[in-house]
Design goal:
Order of helices and strands: EHEHEHEHEHEHHHHHHH
Oligomer: single chain
Strand content: 5-15%
Structural class: alpha/beta
């Protein structure tokens, strides 16, 4: 199944059908989960940037409704941190849209046979990132934007509030949060808050806008 809301979906369908017949297209993010639940496809070619779709969240939801379905991300986004977050979310492969048809077919075949795949040039660039993600990194390893996002998360801000504060889209704010979790090896908002406090990323109550009593209540609630 190809998940894309652009003309690229039809192009991909024509390219892969000779090798993989019965390839369908879903161009509406709202009906995606229903379509996957009903058809249980072997493999999904996912464009993570389609409108109305958060690619990272979508991968997790897709794996929930159809655990046996593999996900191959086909996109133009070659940012290493996003690639790493995508793989951690459960994708089996990642190829860029400018890849050759033969490479796409190779990736599909490999994933269907239980392997993983990443566009070779991207895999070379990803090597340091993959190594770093094996353990938690210090706060100074975060980019300036990631530090800003982390500070706002620790203040209890929602993704929408973070987006408004930093002039970002909500999707970008969520992406930064996922990237931070991936880089630090953390899983929850409470973990991020503890990390910010433990590593001195919130230097003072006035500078960060942090209200310690509310944060303590948040942590206690999340630990129940």
């Amino acid at each position: 199944m190809i998940v894309d809301d652009t003309l690229t979906a039809q192009c991909l369908q024509r390219l892969v059908e000779p090798e993989f017949p019965s390839t369908g297209i879903v161009a509406d993010a709202e009906v995606l989960l229903k379509a996957v639940t009903a058809s249980q496809p072997d493999l999904i070619l996912l464009e993570s940037a389609m409108s109305g779709l958060n690619g990272l969240d979508a991968i997790g939801r897709l794996r929930e409704v159809s655990p046996a379905t593999k996900v191959l991300v086909v996109t133009m986004n070659d940012e290493p941190e996003y690639v790493s977050a995508t793989l951690r979310a459960g994708a089996s492969g990642y190829v860029l849209k400018w890849c050759a048809v033969s490479e796409l077919v190779t990736a599909i075949r490999g994933i269907l046979n239980g392997l993983s795949y990443m566009t070779p040039p991207l895999a070379e660039r990803m090597a340091p990132t993959i190594t770093n993600c094996k353990g938690r990194l210090r706060g100074k390893s975060l980019t300036l934007r990631q530090r800003e996002v982390l500070q706002l998360i620790a203040q209890g801000r929602t993704a929408k509030e973070i987006a408004n504060s930093l002039g970002l889209s909500v999707k970008t704010a969520v992406f930064h949060k996922m990237s931070i979790m991936d880089k630090l090896g953390l899983r929850t908002t409470a973990d991020l808050t503890r990390y910010a406090l433990d590593h001195g990323l919130l230097s003072s109550r006035e500078e960060s806008g942090l209200h310690l009593p509310s944060i303590k209540l948040r942590l206690a609630s999340n630990n129940r």
